[in-house]
Every structure is written in structure tokens, then in C-alpha cells.
Amino acid sequence: MQLALFDFDNTVTVCDTYSRFLRRIATPAQLARARWTMGPWILAYRAGLVSPSAVRVRATRMAFTGRLEAEIVDHGIAYAEQTLPALLRPQMMQRIVWHQAQGHEVAVVSGSLDTYLAPWCERHGLALICNRLESGQGRLTGRYADGDRGAHKAADVRARYDLSRYERIHAYGDSGEDRPMLALAHERWYRGHRLA
After folding, report:
1. CA–CA separation, 106 vs 103, rounded Å?
2. What's the confidence (pLDDT) of residue 196?
3. Whether domain 2-195 has CATH 3.20.20.80
4. Domain boundaries, the chain
């Protein structure tokens, strides 16, 4: 038995789908406020001074606190159906289909949200490990259930799968957060290139 693990943003897709989703669901007031509150954080992230996790946590709190869970779920389904197909890398989708045709277990392991990844993965027959939004009484808290999982991909994979059962593990990623997950694999792909 073999296992294939795929990061999503910038690996399966051509861009960061999380920030696009946030812009899609943000209210006009949130978008106006984001210029001042998120701008410095994004610049610090691009300069390597702030982790991707810190930016995600802050943006998630700003975009989702107090929002109706059902509304965001509906947005996620629409995003998965209408927006994600145009953002996919054809060669990576072919690779996913190839692994499935070989009978391999295939999972998406992402720091993005289940809100849109769950319906997308279900449609494509893929397992999913990712961030989940916390809710209470039908409203989102602005926090992740179980914290941000982006930096914990390898630990989450180990918790979900008994890796000793697999004769071969394949992993695909593009960022520093993916490197520990890649280290679990026999065959590693980083930014489209196979690592020795």
C-alpha cells in the first residue's frame, strides 16, 4: 500500500486560495480595515519577519469573528465549485489521478480551510487534513478548532496514518511548512521538482 500527500496552495493550485477566499467573503468594512490592520503583517511576512501561521491566525480572526457559520459554509461550497477549478495546476491534478489509479491513498494536507477544501476533496475522492474554523451557537469565533495546523502537517499526518503500513510514501509541497511533511516520504517533490 502507498500513500500520497499533497499540499494544496501553490502546489495543487497556482496561487494562495486562502487569501482569495478571505477577500471573497470579507465585508466592505472588513476590506477597508484590512488595509491598515493586515497590511503591515503581510509586508512583515514577505520580508520573512512573520510566520505564515501568524498571518493566517490574524486574518482568520478579522474575517470570521461573529460571522454566521451557515453563510460561510455556503460561500465555501460556491468557492470550491466556481473558483477552484480555474486555479488548479493540470499537471498536479494528473498526478493525483495517477496515484488514485494506482490504488494509492491520497490526502490533501493544507493550512487552508475545510470550508472550501472539504467539498473540493469530497468531489475528487481525497482525504483531507487542514484547518477547521471554530464555531459556537451557529456563529464563528474567529479561531481555528485545534489551532492553526499549517506548521503541524507532519504531526497531523502521523496522527491520522500509521506510516509503517505503507511500503512507499509520496509527498508534494512548496513551502517551509511542507518540509517536515516531505521528510516523512520516500519520494519528495518540492515546487515541481523531485528531491534526491
Report:
1. 9
2. 67
3. no
4. 2-195
The Cα–Cα gap between 60 and 54 comes to 10
pTM of the complete model: 0.93
Contact in structure between 170 and 6 (CB atoms under 8 Å): no
Residue 129: CB atoms within 10 A of its CB come to: 21
**AA letter at 34:** A
pLDDT tens-digit series, residues 141-192:
999 999 999 889 999 999 999 999 999 999 999 999 999 999 999 999 999 9
In the chain, the amino acid numbered 123 is R
**What's the rounded Cα separation, in Å, for the pair 160 and 155?**
9
Residue 150: what residue type?
G
Cα radius of gyration rounded to whole Å, the chain: 17
Amino acid at 81: E
